[in-house]
Amino acid sequence: MSRPIIDVSGLHFTYPDGHQAIKKISFTIHQGESVGIIGANGAGKSTLLMLLMGVLLPDEGQIFVGDVQLAKKNFPIIRQQIGMVFQDPDDQLFMTSVYDDVAFGPRNYRLSEAEVEQRVTRALELVGIPHLRDKAPFKLSGGEKKAAAIASVLSMQPEVLIMDEPTAALDPQARRRLLTLLNSFQHTKIITSHDLDMVLETCSRIIIIKEGQIAADGPVKGILGNEQLLEDCGLELPFSLQTCPICGSKKR
């Protein structure tokens, strides 16, 4: 098996108001895995992402990224290894051109402009938008913004991509292009989403969070095909696995 890239042990987090959002969670993600983290609203998914990124620090437990423990002193190392694409790309794109947004991270690491140019060009090619490099982000479509936001993370050359609701607000064609793009990446991927059909197509493993704890962890088809489990966790079968309302047969 490939080496562990993220190891979470005994993670616990309580907000100042006393709400226990994460309760003694433990799991390991190996290099190259594509893992969907799903759950009903308020289950603790967003809190878990913020803990993985170091935006929040746990009350108890540990997170290791490779051999490096997530701690304030190690943030520069951790944030070179993990890149997060936010749900709303407008939270990630703030420069006057797509090129400058994608170049922002590498420039912050004081790379040479030649290296920055190389990284930006490569990232834009990977997401299929090299023709948009000089365009203002606010003039892009929703799908183009999402691609630019992903490019801004890829330019940092992280080992792990974390994506929060990547298909949110995308039209069907933009959604399909994004799924094709995600499936082309060799990175370790952690994806949170309510779009369970997208998770079914892009992930090989699912972790279900319920009330701050892991309710299930296993192969994607076994979990997303378990209607009772999903119902118990406030979720529904993906549309592609539901019974056709016209002919009464399973769609897949």
Notes on the protein architecture:
With 252 residues, the chain is an alpha/beta fold. The chain contains 9 helices and 10 strands. The protein has helices at residues 45-53, 75-81, 98-108, 113-126, 142-154, 172-184, 196-202, 220-224, 227-232, and strands at 4-14, 20-30, 34-38, 60-65, 68-69, 82-85, 160-164, 188-192, 205-210, 213-219. Strands 6-7-8-3-9-10 form a 6-stranded mixed sheet, with helices on both faces. Strands 2-1-4-5 form a 4-stranded antiparallel sheet, covered by helices on one side. Strand 9 (205-210) and strand 10 (213-219) form a beta hairpin. The protein is globular, with a radius of gyration of 19 Å. The model has no long low-confidence stretch (mean pLDDT 93).
* H/E series: EEEHEEHEHHHEHEHEEHH
**What structural category do the secondary elements indicate?**
alpha/beta
Number of strands: 10
**Number of contiguous helices:** 9
Tell the overall outline. globular
Strand order of the largest sheet: 6-7-8-3-9-10
Main beta sheet strand tally, sense and closure: 6 strands, mixed
Radius of gyration (Å): 19 Å
The averaged pLDDT comes out at 93
- The residue fraction in helices comes out at 25-40%
Measured between the Cα atoms of the first and last residue, the distance is: 30 Å
Strand content: 15-25%
Query: Are there runs of 5+ residues with pLDDT below 50, and where?
Result: none
